[in-house]
Specification:
alpha/beta; Rossmann fold; 2 domains; 7-stranded parallel sheet; 41% helix; globular
C-alpha cells in the first residue's frame, strides 16, 4: 500500500497537530514497514522527529500549493489513498479518484468563537465543511469531536470513524534514576512540583493554577512548560500573589527531556477549558503521574475513571485536589496504576493497528 499524507504540521508544528501527524507517520513506518509513505509539505523545514524517516517527501511551490497545486502532485505520485492529518483536504481531492480521509481534531472555533478572529472562523468553517463533504471517511479522535461535527456541521454519522490517538512512545517506556536526575539537574527542577504543559493562551487556563497555589497553605512549586502570548501576564500574576519563587515557565525544552520532566513531577494538572483530545493527559498517565483535569469535554474519555476531576474554573477545587494527592504516595500509586490500565488502548501500536484497519477497508 502507498499512502499520501498531508505532512505540513509534522514538519512545522511542535504542538498537538504536529505531534499527531508525526505519531501517525512514524507509527505506520514502524508497525507496517512494507507500506510506502509519501509526505506532502509546502516547504522543507528540518524536523527532528522526522529527519530519519524512510519516506518520500514532496515539497510544494508557493503558499497556496497545499490547498490547490498539491492535487496534481498527489495524482502523479501514484498513492493509493490520501490522509489529511490536520482538519483539511486539498481542493478537488475527490476528482483524483482515490480514497481520501481527513482527521478532524476539534471544532473549537464553533464552541468558543470569541477566541478566534472573525476571518479565521470563516476559513476554518469553510475548510471543515468542505473536507467533511469530500472525504470518503472522517476520523475523529474523541467521541466529543464526533458529537460536535454532527451538531455543528450536520455530518452523516455513518461517515465518521473514531480512531483514538496516542502520545510519543518515549513517554511509554520506563526511565532510569540517572535519566531522571540528569534532566532534573539540567532544568533545575525542584523536588516537589505541580506540572502543566500547553500553549500559553486563554483556553489553556494556566492562570487558575497560580490562583490555586496562592490558596494553599503548603504551596508546591508550579512548573509550566509552554510558550505563547500570556507569558508575561502569568509571571505578573505570580508576582501579584508573591509567588515569584514558586512559579516558573520553561519555554524551550528538548523533546527528549520532556518525559523525564513529567516523571519527576508530583502531580500533573490540565485546567484547559476544552479540547478535542488532550495529548498531555496521556503523556502524564504513561509517565505515572496523577492527573487533575476538568470533568467536561473529552477529558473523562481520555483520563479515565481514576483521575481527579474538578471544575477547572474553581481555584479552590483545584487546590483541594492537589492537596488530596501530592503528599500521599499510596493514593498516587493507586491512581497511576489504575490510570495506566485504562490507557492501554491508547498505546501507539494499538492506535496504529486500528487506523490501519480503516486504510485496508477503503
Amino acid at each position: 500500500m502507498r499512502i499520501g499524507f498531508d505532512a505540513k504540521r509534522a514538519f512545522h508544528n511542535l504542538a498537538g497537530l504536529g505531534n499527531y501527524s508525526r505519531s501517525i507517520i512514524k507509527g505506520i513506518g514502524k508497525y507496517y514497514p512494507g507500506t510506502e509513505r509519501v509526505l506532502f509539505t509546502p516547504f522543507m523545514k528540518e524536523a527532528l522527529h522526522l529527519k530519519d524517516e524512510n519516506a518520500q517527501i514532496i515539497t510544494g511551490r508557493g503558499s497556496l500549493w497545499r490547498s490547490f497545486g498539491i492535487k496534481n502532485d498527489i495524482a502523479e505520485s501514484s498513492v493509493d489513498m490520501f490522509h489529511g492529518l490536520s482538519n483539511e483536504l486539498p481542493f478537488g481531492i475527490d476528482k483524483i479518484k482515490i480514497p481520501s480521509i481527513v482527521t478532524i481534531h476539534d471544532v473549537l472555533f464553533k464552541r468558543y468563537p470569541r477566541l478566534y478572529p472573525w476571518f479565521d472562523r470563516q476559513v476554518y468553517s469553510y475548510k471543515t465543511a468542505r473536507a467533511c463533504k469530500e472525504a470518503d471517511k472522517i476520523i475523529v479522535i474523541s467521541e466529543q469531536t464526533r458529537k460536535d461535527l454532527i451538531t455543528h456541521f450536520d455530518v452523516d454519522h455513518r461517515k465518521i470513524e473514531l480512531k483514538y490517538q496516542s502520545c510519543g512512545e518515549n513517554f511509554q517506556r520506563p526511565m532510569s534514576d540517572s535519566e531522571l536526575e540528569n534532566v532534573k539537574a539540567k532544568y533545575h527542577l525542584p523536588e516537589r512540583y505541580l506540572l502543566t504543559v500547553g500553549s500559553l493562551e486563554e483556553r489553556k487556563n494556566q492562570s487558575v493554577l497560580i490562583k490555586a497555589i496562592h490558596l494553599m497553605k503548603d504551596k508546591p512549586d508550579l512548573t509550566i512548560i509552554g510558550r505563547g502570548s500570556l507569558h508575561k501576564k502569568l509571571l505578573a500574576q505570580a508576582a501579584k500573589y508573591g509567588l515569584e519563587d514558586k512559579v516558573r515557565i520553561i519555554e524551550n525544552v528538548d523533546a527528549a527531556d520532556l518525559p523525564a520532566i513529567y516523571r519527576n513531577a508530583s502531580v500533573f494538572a490540565y485546567p484547559s477549558i476544552f479540547e478535542g483530545f488532550g495529548i498531555p493527559i496521556l503523556e502524564a498517565i504513561f509517565s505515572e503521574v496523577p492527573v487533575i483535569v476538568g470533568r467536561n469535554s473529552c477529558f473523562p474519555e481520555v483520563a479515565g475513571p481514576s483521575s481527579l476531576y474538578v471544575d477547572q474554573s474553581s481555584a479552590a477545587e483545584i487546590a483541594s485536589a492537589i492537596e488530596s494527592v501530592i503528599d500521599f504516595p499510596e493514593m498516587k500509586k493507586n491512581i497511576t496504576e489504575s490510570s495506566l490500565k485504562f490507557a492501554e488502548k491508547f498505546r501507539t501500536e494499538k492506535v496504529i493497528q486500528n487506523l490501519y484497519s480503516l486504510y485496508e477497508s477503503l
